[in-house]
Design a protein that fits this description.
The protein is α+β, with helices and mostly antiparallel strands. The protein has helices at residues 11-14, 27-37, 86-92, 124-127, 135-151, 183-190, 226-245, 277-280, 311-335; strands at residues 17-22, 42-45, 53-55, 61-63, 69-71, 77-83, 98-105, 154-156, 162-163, 173-177, 198-199, 252-258, 264-272, 289-297, 338-341, 346-347.
């Protein structure tokens, strides 16, 4: 496929956010990731197959083929791919290993300056010190960063800041299915990956109201006489007893495994109706799905949101990642369904 090339001094290049990717990334991969985040994404102009042709009286100039246009939303498009050679990459400040680039055409919508407290894993605070992107620019730029993280690329913002998301930072995975496992079954599955796993449920029982409840007046119930007060509390006791003997169906729970110096491994199970677009499109998920979220909780939670976490965090993350993968495989083997990563992109079980 002959693609148009990117030039470092083009005003169109310098004034837009750029997604740069390794040269072996196929456009179909980018299109799938776009559809995973934007349900109505579609190709308005396919990437060209027309080779460059000589133009001019002597054929000394070359006509560039037109770039493809991928519609992300009503207001935004992704233009490309363009070829990116090392000198151009160097001039733009992006990794010279990149071989492809896409140009984001989105409205410039900025909000208030970012707070200086808290984490900034993607580096947006230093890229937009005067005001963070909001609305459609925030959504589409967030997708650029997610795609760069998934595909091993980088983003050059229109403010000339280079953002290189660390793919290894996206540890958590989720299994989506229509099968519900009770806590005892789920912890049995979890113990295939983490033998010391346990169900994280309350272990104490409620002992009822304290002595004297309903026998003396309290503020707000002064108008009730003794008989009314006793009848009200008797009805409450009856309802409590009915709830304790026939509790409502469980809608969520969690299992944990202590990784000692490396933090905790968690399996969070819940029924959900707000689904990622890629899962919502699956027929069996039309009315919701059960989410089995496999999460790693580091010893220092704030390190999860650091753009450059400490070496201790990265070492612990490297040891925890195989356990996250093993637990995800075990859950998927037990309940089937689909797997998504931290960016809500679908993951092929064979790639784990």
């Amino acid at each position: 496929m002959a693609l148009p090339s990117l030039t470092a001094d083009d005003p169109e290049v310098l004034s837009h956010h750029l997604l740069v990717l390794p040269g072996d990334v196929g456009h179909d991969e980018v299109e799938v990731l776009a559809a995973s985040r934007f349900p109505h994404a579609h190709q308005e102009t396919p990437p060209t197959l027309t080779p460059p042709r000589p133009v001019g009286a002597r054929g000394l100039r070359t006509s560039q083929p037109p770039p493809g246009v991928l519609r992300l939303s009503r207001h935004s498009t992704l233009v490309g791919p363009f070829t990116l050679d090392p000198p151009t990459a160097s001039a733009l400040g992006v990794p010279t290993s990149a071989g492809l680039a896409y140009r984001l055409h989105a409205p410039v919508e900025r909000g208030t300056p970012p707070l200086q407290e808290g984490g900034d894993r993607d580096g947006l605070r230093r890229a937009f010190p005067d005001g963070l992107p909001i609305r459609d620019e925030e959504r589409t730029l967030g997708w650029l960063l997610a795609a760069a993280r998934r595909l091993g690329g980088a983003v050059r913002t229109a403010t000339a800041t280079i953002l290189v998301p660390d793919p290894a930072a996206a540890v958590d995975l989720t299994v989506w299915t229509d099968i519900w496992l009770e806590p005892d079954a789920a912890v049995t599955v979890m113990r295939r990956a983490a033998p010391r796993a346990y169900v994280n449920l309350p272990t104490t029982r409620w002992g009822g109201p304290p002595p004297g409840t309903g026998e003396r007046p309290v503020r707000g119930a002064d108008a009730l006489d003794d008989a009314q007060r006793r009848a009200l509390h008797a009805a409450a006791d009856e309802r409590d007893m009915a709830t304790l003997t026939a509790p409502p169906p469980m809608t969520s729970y969690g299992c944990l495994a202590d990784l000692e110096l490396d933090g905790m491994l968690a399996l969070e199970v819940a029924g959900e109706t707000q689904l990622p677009p890629a899962i919502a499109a699956v027929p069996w998920a039309a009315r919701g799905a059960v989410a089995y979220r496999v999460r790693w909780e580091p010893p220092e939670i704030e390190e999860l949101h650091a753009e450059r976490p400490s070496i201790q965090h990265r070492v612990a993350r490297g040891r925890a990642l195989p356990l996250v993968v093993a637990l995800t495989r075990a859950v998927h083997a037990a309940v089937g369904g689909e797997i998504t990563d931290e960016m809500d992109f679908v993951v092929d079980p064979a790639d784990l």
